[in-house]
TrEMBL record:
<dbReference type="InterPro" id="IPR005875">
    <property type="entry name" value="PurK"/>
</dbReference>
<dbReference type="GO" id="GO:0004638">
    <property type="term" value="F:phosphoribosylaminoimidazole carboxylase activity"/>
</dbReference>
<dbReference type="InterPro" id="IPR013815">
    <property type="entry name" value="ATP_grasp_subdomain_1"/>
</dbReference>
<dbReference type="InterPro" id="IPR003135">
    <property type="entry name" value="ATP-grasp_carboxylate-amine"/>
</dbReference>
<feature type="domain" description="ATP-grasp">
    <location>
        <begin position="107"/>
        <end position="296"/>
    </location>
</feature>
<comment type="pathway">
    <text>Purine metabolism.</text>
</comment>
<protein>
    <submittedName>
        <fullName>Unannotated protein</fullName>
    </submittedName>
</protein>
<dbReference type="GO" id="GO:0005524">
    <property type="term" value="F:ATP binding"/>
</dbReference>
<dbReference type="InterPro" id="IPR040686">
    <property type="entry name" value="PurK_C"/>
</dbReference>
<keyword id="KW-0547">Nucleotide-binding</keyword>
<dbReference type="Pfam" id="PF02222">
    <property type="entry name" value="ATP-grasp"/>
</dbReference>
<keyword id="KW-0067">ATP-binding</keyword>
<dbReference type="Pfam" id="PF17769">
    <property type="entry name" value="PurK_C"/>
</dbReference>
<dbReference type="GO" id="GO:0006189">
    <property type="term" value="P:'de novo' IMP biosynthetic process"/>
</dbReference>
<keyword id="KW-0658">Purine biosynthesis</keyword>
<dbReference type="Pfam" id="PF22660">
    <property type="entry name" value="RS_preATP-grasp-like"/>
</dbReference>
<dbReference type="InterPro" id="IPR011054">
    <property type="entry name" value="Rudment_hybrid_motif"/>
</dbReference>
Amino acid sequence: MSEPVLRVGVIGGGQLARMMIAPSKKLGISLKVLAESEDSPAADAATMVGDYTQLSIVREFSKTVDVISFDHEHVPLDVLEALEAEGVNIQPPSRALRFAQNKLQMRKRLGELDLPMPAWAEVKDAKSLDDFIVANGGVAILKTPIGGYDGKGVMVVRSSSDASAWLNDLDSFGGSLLAEEKVDFVRELSQLGARRPSGDFAAWPLVETIQENGVCSVVLSPAPEASSEVIELTKNIAKRIADGLGVTGMLAVELFETRDGRILINELAMRPHNSGHFSIEGATTSQFEQHLRAVLDLPLGETKPRARYSVMVNLLGLDGTNDFSKNHDAATALHPEISIHTYGKAARIGRKMGHITCIAESLDEALTGAKGAAAVLLQG
């Protein structure tokens, strides 16, 4: 009689689920995906297609797996709580995901943990927003607490009149908005880690992320010229968040490094994250393998780098007709050291269509390889 196979169910058929397919085979586990459509990026592992907001559908999916995890954080909490009450193993659990789904709840909890953040306030009317703006140098970042990502649901405001549409539609955002200090930062960083339900935690090297129009464009691993004090601090921050919020699986902590030397928490993701894609080629254990290990409460893998530097460049859609395949041979011939990942998504301006990774012993070499190959792929 054959040994039983561990089964991980992933809700969401996007590129993150797609990139879990290869490590699931390496680990000898069965990956099953509840996809939104038949042609999702993770179609090869899609065992069910349906609406993840419907309890009945997610319940049926849960019967086919040993643990449920996620490609995104958008499954309604009441669906997850109902299944948890029925004994379904969900990782990360709903009590942690609520902080990823609601930025206001996240700020409140991180404040209770005394972790470093920009100044912030809950805003329910024009006066409270104007008061915050005045108290913070005449400008603020305003966010919708729910639903924003990749630059969406964020605006710079200098007066409550700039946000009149949001203020007049507070019910759509849970009744409040989140106002934050406009941080004078020198760069953005990301600290990736993973935690098992039994409590073990592992972290990768701190990385620097470079944004383009609110979307991550380039990731440098490790973050150049990061001090040993900053490296120790960011790992400690990630571990305290994982423990304090009860996160299991992957955790990405997006950070600001300020001109006056502060490290401040920007946002969180409780799943594999764009800033960790470099780890597929650049680390002993990729974030996708680690996520699967963690949600199954298996021993975590090593996070050591495979080379001194790794650079990841996102392939962002230029128009609705991008076709990377026609330039694939030219890109790999010119830069044979690079790895290309495409996501099987319909092209759209600014959309993450894939990424390129280059690992090397010098940062310049890794940057040249990844950016050079990206330029070739994106040619018309």
